[in-house]
Amino acid sequence: MAKRKDTVERICTIAELSSMFEESHSLREIRGESPRKRGGTQGLYCGRSVSPGVAHGPVSILDSHGRGGERLEVPAGTGGDTVAFHDALRRSESQLVVLQRETEELLGHEVSMIFSAQQLLLRDEQIEGEMLRRIESGHDAAVAIVDVLNGCIDQFAASDTEMLREKVHDLKDLGHRMLQNLSADSDDAQADYRGHIVISADLLPSDVVKLVAQHAGGLVMVGGGVNSHASILARALGIPLVIIENDEVLEIAEESDVLLDGVEGRLLVVPDTDYIESYRALLDADGSRPEEPARHATTSTRDGTRVTLLANINLMGEVALAWQNGAEGIGLYRSEFPFLIRNDFPSEEEQFLIYRSILDASGDRDVVFRTLDIGADKFLPYVPAWNEANPALGLRSIRFSLKNRPVFAQQLRAMLRAGEGRPLKIMFPLVSSLEELRAAKVCVAESIGDLQDERTACNCAPDLGIMIESPAAVELADALARESDFFSIGTNDLVQYLLAVDRTNEHVADLYIDHHPVVLRAIKKVLDAAQAASISVSVCGEMAANEKVLPVLVGMGLRSISIEPRSIGRVQAAIMRIDLTEAEPKAAKILQSNEIAATHALL
Ligand code: PEP
Ligand code: MG
What is the mean pLDDT of residues 506-519? Predict the structure, then answer.
């Protein structure tokens, strides 16, 4: 289970825990002995903490998205006749129904639909019929299930269509569930990733969502960036995630006992009982809310300057958490997540319902809807022929929307309809020229015109803003500010593009520096441009939750930030410690630095 970082710190220091571990285990990793498949050997892997929390449980290795087309195997000891097969079918179906309902409550309707795909496969008459035929002709139920599903997996894996290849994942999930349900002693709780520490070479945002929905205890990713979208999502959903670069972790035997320390970024394989006990208080503590809500309704610096705290929302299920934790509005709704976790484009109506529920759940608070930001590390499996050598520099964000007008129009129409009768803010990601901004605005005007012609109720005068995420947008900030209603500085991408450092690449993670002088100067330039044009501006990248950098940002004039809901209490406390009479001169001094070391020293 995920546990809170502050609890970790209260109970014992990680250094103490580490030394206990090192005393009780010989560090086989250092001696070159790794805890491999050959047995549950003890060992320690060190990596980077991405999402805090502590989890203890058996390992599940997730092959790289099932996209390699790996097949199911008949587990030892399973067999089964027709009766057992029907029983496994029934149990699998009722588990999927429960899973779908629980997921809807926890993460929202758009996520729960993942499990309807598996229900459809389960009810497929051809698949079920073929399994039954094989059982009736003398095969064990387990063999029939594996053979039939492997046949489908082979077919789907060989498909040219990514969307069909993606189905391999669903087929394998379903196969594991049915096989588990065939064994007489299986209980329903075992039929998914419940309590497992899932290790994968790579995780997509949709994998993170599915694993959280299936109650995984923690995640380990081999490589990747702490600011990748999978990482952002893991933090937002409160599941511990550690990035470990050593790919030997993929060879840890399935079901090995491990302890994941998401605070220090460690994975302990087959830990001693004493060691597990030292974490007992954390493991037993209620980790379902690993965050402190804001203590005050509004946020001000020590000297009384107001700073607005908004929430970044990826899934509808996070909206309630944002209000519980004291967000004043939604500064960034990443509208692409419902697109990412499905196998086809959501219809205008489906999108309308999602946007409408978000607005309904927000009362009269501000909500900023960002239009589709896909591409780079967020690709849609159902968009054909989308192979790019440099996806981060490719057809992503507003570029994708402008080249796929029907998709863009459908989304805009859904947003405009949802915003009928209330203030509406629409934001375009990764704008890098005035022409792009103008083209996007024309699309909005066209959608409004179409809706009016059809006499469909809609918001005809939304505020239109842009994300500042590219060096080009920084350079053009003055001109863009004159034609935008608001700015939001997306530092996750801005840092990547200003410094030419891939935000998802672990090999250059040490070069991804948010306090680089160029980044700070760029932010200052954008703040000044927004102020000159009298438009609002906020920062919505992960940098805004960095307590060290916050005084500089506020000292430079930033008065609105948007962060994940779980960080709101912590960030509010940090802002309330800032005194502008100190922060402003400090920011001015830092802006004079040319060296990273100098800005670092001043922070
Ligand atoms: C950003 O780039 O800072 C941002 C908030 O957008 P995303 O992380 O979704 O790219
Ligand atoms: Mg971005």
Answer: 94
